[in-house]
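Exam revision sheet. Question 4 asks you to relate a sequence to its structure. Input first:
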Amino acid sequence: MDNTNQIILKIKKRNIFRIVWFTFVIIFCIWQWSTYQSRSLPEDTFLESDSVSVQISDDKISYISQRSEFRNEVIFFQGGLTDPKAYAPLCRQIAENGFTCHLIKMDWRMPIWGYKIILKLFDLNNGNYIIGGHSQGGKMAAQFVYEYPGLMNGLFLLGTSHPRDFDLSNRSIPTIKLYAEFDGLASVPEVMENKTKLPRNTELIMIKGGNHSQFGYLGRLLTDDSPKIERDRQQQLTEKALLYFFKEIEQKG
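Answer key, structure tokens:
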């Protein structure tokens, strides 16, 4: 009888452990997924104004600048698994300053699978476009430039250590890379390790105090470090650097 009770007790303990373990895993997965969702978006993110109109479709969110002084349009790739709306405030600010900006929605939120959709969405051979993105979106923007040379007038990379698997050092396309001091997913050493694969004229700018997650309106992603500046400040610094870069491309014609 004692042996039977001991066996039953062991089985109960084992079942309790399994329940606790699976509960922990489920809670962790829910928390992790929640960090990839957009949050705290400004109230006007999707509202029309005198300077910007907003077009939302299954494939993209387009912020159409009502100012006609700039010929280039911006194509923005979201980060891997992230809610594309997390980058809408930055794209809107770009449009508020005169550059129409298209935020691409990737299938399954994975730029690695959906980046070539822009070949169908835009007449790239006859238009003027600057391409870029955040994290994996930056990687795939660089890969698009690698695979389709001559289609883009500029390349911008945010919070990514790429390109790693291919070499753009022989390309002359204007390029800017913004990286953050406390980025836990694309660290400063990783960015520096791969800088020789960037186009030779690439401008590298570190966002002091910034981290990976604050390039978008996201929660703090797993393994990312704590920032030393507020998200609004990181967004302002990113916007300022990108607009200066875009205007330089315009001036060079």
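Marking note for examiners. DSSP finds seven helices and eight strands in the chain.
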